[in-house]
Amino acid sequence: MPELPEVETICRTLRAGFPTSPSLIGLTIIDGQIFWPRSLETPSVAEFSDRISGQSINQINRRGKFILITLSRDTLLIHLRMSGDLFTEQGNVPIATHHRMVINFQNGLRLAFNDPRKFGRVWLVSDPETVTGGLGPEPLDENFTAVDFFGRLRASRRQLKALLLDQSFLAGLGNIYTDESLHLAHIHPLLHSQNVTEEQAARLLVSIRQVLNDAIQRNGSSIDWVYRGGDFQNYFRAYDRDGHPCPECGTIIQRIKVGQRGTHFCPQCQRLP
Predict the structure, then answer these.
(1) Are the C-beta atoms of residues 66 and 78 closer than 8 Å to each other?
(2) Considering only the top CATH level, what class is 4-132?
(3) Is 142 known to be catalytic?
(4) Catalytic pick from 81, 154, 209, 261?
(5) Known catalytic residue: 15?
(6) Residue 227 pLDDT level (bands cut at 50, 70, 90)
(7) What is the arithmetic mean of pLDDT over 147-163?
(8) Catalytic site residue 65?
């Protein structure tokens, strides 16, 4: 599943454009087409097409793992889930097999939401908070302090790995960047949040931000056929490295299950008290 760095990379590409395609900012929409009705959470398919036509794109941002496209009247939200991707293409090319939605622009360009596994979702709403209101703080928000983070950790009684994956606790982290952050911070994924010290909380927040910023700089991680835009996978410390030596101490990285999720850690660097 694309996580915060991959979603941020997609947003930046759509916002800034690239050599073969212009930015989407300022473009006017001719119409929108839905090819898999269950991909659209709200409104109805008929209302979607009528409502989005004639609107223009003002901003493209990210909230957690959501892509937020601010239009002249509404907001289009897209969650890529397991296999989704969002990209631009020329409007005269054939509709690909797994396209679930396309947005056609006046300049002949097309925004395509491609999702082979059909888990991704789309919303067209007047207030994005109706969709994102339950998300936790953004880990890269400078106003979110180590004191805030420590307070949220101590208010819970869950294992760290599972808690960090909870989007209502902290928005944007997934399996990859949680494992990477915990390894960099030298904290065991099974440590319960109420036992985290203030120093550990500060160290973990710094590690989360370092890992996310490094991954964004490298356009995220390409680990399967879904997202192929980045190369941060070449710099993994722990994730998907079970059986390989820890880059810090040489101890073999282990893999366990935490909340049904594969979890990678170093038993030497990340000792459980």
Answers:
(1) yes
(2) alpha beta
(3) no
(4) 261
(5) no
(6) low
(7) 97
(8) yes
